[in-house]
Specification:
Blueprint lengths: L18 H16 L3 H7 L4 E10 L5 E12 L5 E7 L5 H18 L5 E6 L8 H14 L9 E5 L5 H15 L20 H19 L8 E5 L3 H12 L3 E7 L2 E4 L6 H9 L12 E3 L1 H4 L6 E4 L18 E3 L8 H9 L3 E3 L1 H4 L2 H15 L5 H26 L3 H20 L4
Parallel strand pairs: 3-4, 3-5, 6-7, 6-10, 10-11, 11-12
Antiparallel strand pairs: 1-2, 2-4, 7-8, 8-9
The chain binds NADPH dihydro-nicotinamide-adenine-dinucleotide phosphate and 2-oxoglutaric acid (AKG).
């Protein structure tokens, strides 16, 4: 039985589905399936280190605000901590802790030598100027200076952050230590040691996993009706690549709402439209407006939630019509909803597999940086695809072997590898 963490996590609001409790439940299920000993389960259910820092920032109007910045380092059993930095108003320590734990299993599942971490600041980046965001990012990095590093903890982009924030983090870290350290972050601009292919990597990974899953059902991407929630780094890239592969993207959304066009949206035109409309797809000519809630229940072949956690819950799961759901976001389906989908025979491609393309190319970026040798995009994409397809087949095999759903199959592989390393390292006090 996984116990309640002793770390300073704020109480979960009873009205809110707690992502950390959900993550612990999945760990517990994997532990039971693997017959893990109580000690290992106890260790793996606790983040190793939880850091919260104050970030004082002077706004452009002269007002001073102090923000809370988190970095949760769940596990470094397999290697340096690894995971993104999220800027979003809903960020809490519990959410960041859950996402850090997912990173541990994701890296282990993909066979890349990292542990898991996540960071975040509870802000809406769209309400801050570029100058304010730069000051926030630099101060956050300075406060974390002793906790990150290329062989300690390597941040990357997540919701609300991008290559721009990674460049600021890299520069702040480098200035603090006195020399350039590109390997302290991944997802950087190419000019400071980023990798070709990283920007599209998470979306590309989603496309690869959906393609493989459809192929196992004797189908191809061509003509598939696909709905995508979220049109940012992940949802936007997935839409573009799936569209290029011949799928019909019939609906997409951003936080303010979505658009629906049953015969398939013109994705290049929609990207251009969003680029000049503060990233929003609302008002795209010809398409009908649709709410985020209605978008999730549209008739389609594949549903791709690529925004926030807890989008498919007990409340709306019975209205979901897709026969396949690829979790591009982390934790978009609750535990209860997942059980209902499984009972209905819906194929759920779990987050730690479906959205792993990003961290895989982060790893390839880090490897390229450490070896001072940069690859062309074709090679990056090829290496990533090999790791993704290999992990997909391992999950399918594990699912058949243990007679468990794909999520539990992915978790047993990820958790099992970390537990094995824990036992081999002999970390028991
Ligand atoms: N970036 C990466 O490499 C990886 C990201 N992920 C996961 O993918 C998900 C998306 O991340 P990413 O694409 O990077 O983030 P971005 O910030 O680039 O984009 C997020 C998208 O989601 C939309 N969105 C925000 N809130 C809502 C909402 N309540 N309902 C519907 N849409 C909403 C945003 O709209 P708007 O612009 O209007 O706010 C935006 O279109 C997250 O769960 C993240 O953890 C997973 C692996 C790697
Ligand atoms: O690229 C990375 O290191 C992390 C990406 C990430 O945050 C995620 O996979 O959720």
């Amino acid at each position: 039985m996984v116990t309640t963490p002793v770390l300073p996590l704020e109480a979960a609001s009873p009205a809110h589905i707690c992502p950390f409790d959900q993550a612990c439940s999945y760990l517990e299920a994997a532990g039971k399936e693997l017959k893990l000993d109580q000690g290992s389960l106890e260790i793996l259910s606790h983040p190793r280190k939880v850091v919260t820092v104050s970030i004082p920032v002077k706004l452009d109007n002269g007002e001073v605000r102090v923000l809370a910045g988190h970095r949760v380092q769940h596990s470094d059993i397999l290697g340096p901590y690894k995971g993104g930095i999220r800027y979003h108003p809903a960020v809490t320590l519990r959410e960041v802790s859950a996402l850090a734990m997912l990173m541990t299993w994701k890296c282990a599942l993909l066979g890349i030598p990292y542990g898991g971490a996540k960071g975040g600041i509870a802000i809406d980046p769209q309400l801050y100027s570029v100058g304010e965001l730069e000051r926030i990012t630099r101060r956050y990095t300075s406060e974390l200076i002793k906790d990150i590093g290329p062989s300690v903890d390597i941040p990357a982009p997540d919701m609300g952050t991008s290559a721009r924030e990674m460049a600021w983090m890299m520069d702040t870290y480098s200035v603090n230590v006195g020399h350039a350290v590109p390997g302290v972050v991944t997802g950087k601009p190419l000019s400071v040691g980023g990798s070709l292919g990283r920007e599209m990597a998470t979306g590309r990974g989603v496309m690869i996993i959906v393609r493989e899953a459809l192929a196992d059902q004797g189908k191809s991407l061509a003509g598939m009706r696909i709905v995508i929630q979220g049109f940012g780094n992940v949802g936007g890239a997935a839409a573009e690549l799936l569209y290029k592969a011949g799928a019909k993207i019939i609906a997409v959304s951003t936080a303010t709402g979505g658009v629906y066009y049953p015969t398939g949206l013109d994705i290049p035109a929609l990207k251009t439209y969003a680029a000049v409309n503060r990233k929003s797809v609302v008002g795209f000519p010809q398409a009908a407006p649709i709410s985020n809630a209605d978008l999730l229940t549209l008739p389609c072949d594949v549903l791709i939630p690529a925004a926030l956690e807890n989008q498919i819950t007990e409340e709306n799961v019975n209205q979901v019509q897709a026969q396949m759901i690829a979790e591009a976001a982390n934790g978009p389906i609750t535990l209860e909803a997942n059980q209902i989908l499984e009972a209905r025979g819906v194929t759920v491609l779990p987050d730690i597999l479906a959205n792993a393309g990003g961290v895989v190319v982060s790893y390839l970026e880090w490897v390229q940086g450490l070896s001072y040798l940069f690859w062309n995009e074709q090679r990056v994409n090829h290496e990533m695809e090999q790791l993704m397809v290999q992990a997909y087949h391992q999950v399918i095999q594990q699912s058949k072997l243990r007679q468990v759903n794909l999520r539990l199959a992915a978790y047993t592989l990820g958790v099992g590898r970390v537990a094995q390393a824990l036992s081999d390292r002999g970390l028991y006090p």
